Fold this sequence. Notes:
The chain is built from five helices and five strands, in the order H-E-E-E-H-H-E-E-H-H.
Amino acid sequence: MNVFRRLLLAAALMLSATFLVPAGPANAGGQAIRVCFQVGEFGGRPIFDCFTIVLPELAPKPPWPPECLSCPVAFDPWDELDIWQRHDYVRGWGEGLGLLGQAALSTDPKEIKHLRALAQESFFKAADISAASGVELESVGWADLKKGEFFPDSTGNAALKSAGENLIAGHALMQKALGDPEPQPNIEAAMARFDQAYLDIAEVYGG
């Protein structure tokens, strides 16, 4: 990507960050949870990268499967990249979701705008890192970090499935923005998908 194209994208990121500030701040507080991504396997066991995000509230009894009652949600993306590239782009997802969570719980409009701009930048970097490959959703489920196992969701959790689908859709839109002379519409559409992925995860944990 040439320098001029990168400058256009940077300008579009800044502009869309201005338009995408939520209409009203959420209540302060929240509770931290982990979201995990399977980035590979070693010795037949999955390798997870996990990230902390904050949510407005948690249900007394989240809908975990019986075999994995304390497991965080997990997403298994498919691509044609090596494990190090996958690690880097899912880090963009995890950090971006974390920043969206902080923005959702902030009561300061300036802080909200700043955090959302950082989240946008994180998701954009993830798209840039993985530009050589499309990314699809292989599976959603739960990560048993102690035993090193991935449990595909067997509960029919619609919000969990929607979260994975929105992450992938947002990522694809950010990838489209990489080569678009007018990237702002794709960036805005991508952020709407990432916002919905965050809300879906909140629904999984919030019941």
